[in-house]
């Protein structure tokens, strides 16, 4: 099998991960990055720095040529229509309902600008709770102010 | 002016807030709720418990009839097409790129289920940083497992 | 034939079911689950608990590796455009016409919240009737109340 | 105010219902019909038989001309895009996920045909449950077989 | 060639029909059904009763397994966007322009209800005319009245 | 009230028709045209010949200026998305399912060409039937052959 | 290679045309038809009369079975979304901007009706001009008057 | 009535044209321009040179301020979805079917480039014909070659 | 006239600009900003710093309250469908054709990241040229590198 | 591998470029053209003059037949929906926000017309900046004036 692009590498990662019985958290720990970023880069949605690409190749025993492709800049294609999977849909529902609220509070706290989606990081954690455990998602992005000229 | 629905009340809230020189954080504190929930309920996207609706009416000196409408269950209508405002768009970009990642990690940590968008809360804060301050968004939702029958 | 995902397993189930001359009701009874849930899980729209997956593998003499895939969390993709098949279209017509009515009655009976589509079950039965037999569909979902914070 | 169409009558019904402090269940009982059908006809999505239209006019003290409009055949317009309100969206999610399952079971139980959405009725009830009360929706529609000619 | 679904059978029918030099009218006559229904069932848009499926298999010398598939209930998928072929487009133009007229006349002649598209038949004939021959399309569907409950 | 376009005239026609207690069949008979064409022209979807426009003005006692507007060529705007009203939707379902069949039979009976939607007429009638009365729709359009050059 | 439909024939035409170093004008002249019609029929968008199909088969040395397929009535599928190729887009821009103008002038010159796209022909020519040569497109279609009945 | 934009002027032109009993051809002749360009500029889809704007103001006795607005550069907004009016739709059908043909012939006659829709003119004429008169549309646009750099 | 939002202020700016016979370049020069930014802020697509808002109010003699609204953060709403105006469409055509090229060159010159549309400026100038003057558009945006974490 | 169209050639170019370790700038320099145009023509979005096609074939050691295909006029197909890749999306955001501004300034500086996207060139450069390097995009297109006739 020749590896030609990020899709090919993703297929291989999923296969080898299943075979090795690894979790995303486990892989992330082994290459010294967060689980969110690790999964996203494995899905071809982020470029890996050279050392991380090579670490991943070792962890999963991928063919060497996979490293070069993991380092390439991705073309990030995602569904423009709201997805139907309930677990993902709920995220759009939240952003749809609370988007204008987040915008209003960013402008109130920072001024005219945005939260960067490029200089950005995120985590997902499980929080125990007697009424039922909760999913906690934390996002952090650099504030970018609009330019006037 | 007769108040007939949540849109009418929102217009009035924005007008009286501007006149009173209040911020969303200030209003939220006065009614003892979070800024995110307060703004969202003022926008007509959440129903207010009776005491909070009455507190808001006092804080902004709204007409008494506004309280009843603030208590009603909203019909939450939000854009199904990805919005163009850069501050809101970046949130969709994040959910579009990282949605499958969040799904994979929820399944890995909890099993087959979702993060509720109903039993849910959120905050937006400013985090100081020498390389440029950052926007921090924290979401928390109850984990709901699929039923088998 | 290597089984790689739920689509592969569904194709096999349909083939073996036809060969064995089984009905969905028959299969459901044999694995001790309802026909609605059984068909849905066989279509790849629900994850099977381990014991049910293994029971199904036995009933249909599927290859052993099918069980692991039947246990995986599905990505539920369904048509966002209203489908054209008359039997399915009529369901959308009902939900389109009566959706706001169901919402109004849920709010009247429960308060501000929704019927869960996750903690949910459903049945389809035939009801004899001298004017022509009728299809009866029963849905039951947990009421979830909105959070205020 | 001249009443010209079903939208005008709906606005009036909502106003007089709020003023009279009535519920949909209460109105339905007074005119001797089910709550689902009553709400739907008040929303302009079903035509009222003459005696029911006149009963409703009395119950809510509507102007007499409202009765004629309530009797007219409606043009049923509903959103072709999946609605965003969470309470209504969940119904589409159910129909999207389980639509092919319902179709398969109807064909298995009845043959090649559909459940009518015209010769049809529905109820919404609250079912007490120690783990949290549940919403129960029951639909019943006449089976219609395809014609061969 | 293994026959797996209605698409496979349709391809075979078209091939054998061309080879045998038959017309749709000729095939229809041989199996004792109308040309409209016969073509539609051959296209996989209607289910064939057992005897008609077997008759068709004989007429076209199809493999025996085709009969079982011809008997299955189809999933009727048709273009939701108006098609561009001029011959088919004109039908949509007619329905687009005259749809509300047909609705008004059905309500005037029958009451609140619809013409069934399930208990339905249709014919297409050529009518000679000195100013240019004309296409005549006749549709007949059972009237279905809305239920009140 | 100034009449400026076909929409204005349609509103007036509906109002005067209701006031006069007339049916479409009755109006059609009085102006000596078919009910389908009459309703369609009253809806602004067809242009009226001068004498028919004047006859209609007399029958309904419309203001004289309405005649001129009834004679104008309409801009026929109809929904490009399949309409949701069940009575009209069924017509699209028929055309969606049987469109390719009608095309095949027209080509078989006439050659490469279409049924005109311009040199066209249509009727809607009620046919008594002991199993339930039926709606009969008849369409007739001139055959137009493609040009080769 | 078996020829099964118009797409297959088009691929072969393009290949043989390239190999033979022919132009569309050259082919058109050889079969005694216009270049516009010839290209369109080669693209599978028009049916060829028997003699023209056979002439084309000779000119390009196509396999004999291609003639039968060239004679078949096409299903004309074209992009319903405005195409992006600049050369084709400009044609839509012209029709978009000047469509209502053409309609107004047709009604002014002919009455209530249309220009046929079926009984229709077209040419594309190069016109020399010192300020830069110009493309000239001429269309001619039979006027069709609307029917009243 | 204050004139604020091209829409306002168009409404006035239509009104005064009807009152004066003028045709587009007649107006065009009076201002010394073609009927196509004149109608298009009156619809707000082209900017008028100063002298033509003033000539039109005189011909139709428009208020003087209309001239300035007629001279402004328009924002040309036209339907991106194919329009439904049969007279305009046929133009899209022609461009949809023959667009790739026109492109192929332009490239064959000129090289890699397009027909300009900016340096462009058009005419619509009636051509007598014993088999039925024909509409003739002629378009002429400057050829523009792509740049290489 | 009460000024309530940026739309109201834009209408006023256009009116007063026309009355004062000013150009965008002239206004921009008077407030000491670029023409691109000035026009954009006047259209409500950028927020004005306090001193610039006050300068604009003086230059155009706007009511004092306009300054506050000019300072507010805008909600930038723009057409998600490609616009039809030829002057704007050409910009989309350029971005559509050359977007992947710009992306490839940015990655080649900078690494994995983007050109900011927030920390951004632009100019439009006229460049004389004997073969026809040219429009020159220059854009400059800060390079933002993706974060790994 | 037979080369049949521009897609085939693009795949080969990418493969040979990677193997040769070349950059787009390096290739562009070797064939004496700009990087933007070179990348775009290699992607199949521009036609190459004969000498440039042959130069490219030499530089990358492509099969000789690639030259002919590189010379062909492309059919430029680009996404009509705004793309999701952040690097490309930002360009649409800029054109969406500033499109009307560019239009207003072109009309102010030139009159009623457009910037050509055909007689057009573009460059992308890196500009050093102590606050972070910047991407500079320069576009130049011939001004084209609308025709009046």
Automatic annotation (TrEMBL), chains A, B, C, D, E, F, G, H, I, J:
Question: Matching InterPro entries, A to Z?
Answer: Cyanase, Cyanate_lyase_C, Cyanate_lyase_C_sf, CYNS_N, Lambda_DNA-bd_dom_sf
Question: Which residues act catalytically here?
Answer: 90, 93, 116
| CDD domains on file | Cyanase_C (cd00559)
The source's domain of life comes to Bacteria
Q: Which GO terms describe its molecular function?
A: cyanate hydratase activity; DNA binding
UniProtKB keywords: Lyase
Which SMART domains does the record associate with it? Cyanate_lyase
The EC number(s) attached to this protein equal 4.2.1.104
Catalytically driven reaction(s): cyanate + hydrogencarbonate + 3 H(+) = NH4(+) + 2 CO2
Where in this chain does the record put each Cyanate lyase C-terminal domain?
77-149
The family line of this record is: Belongs to the cyanase family.
The record describes the protein's role as: Catalyzes the reaction of cyanate with bicarbonate to produce ammonia and carbon dioxide.
Annotated protein name in UniProt: Cyanate hydratase
The primary gene name is: cynS
């Amino acid at each position: 099998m020749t590896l030609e692009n990020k899709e090919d590498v993703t297929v291989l990662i999923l296969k080898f991960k299943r075979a090795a019985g690894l979790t995303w958290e486990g892989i992330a720990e082994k290459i010294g990055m967060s689980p969110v970023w690790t999964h996203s880069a494995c899905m071809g949605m982020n470029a890996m720095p050279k050392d991380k690409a090579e670490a991943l190749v070792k962890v999963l025993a991928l063919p060497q040529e996979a490293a070069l492709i993991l380092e390439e800049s991705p073309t990030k294609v995602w569904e423009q229509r709201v997805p139907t999977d309930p677990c993902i849909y709920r995220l759009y529902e939240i952003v749809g309902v609370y988007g204008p609220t987040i915008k209003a509070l960013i402008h109130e706290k920072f001024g005219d600008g945005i939260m960067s989606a490029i200089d950005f990081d995120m985590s997902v954690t499980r929080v125990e709770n007697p009424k039922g455990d909760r999913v906690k998602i934390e996002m952090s992005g650099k504030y970018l102010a609009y330019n006037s000229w």
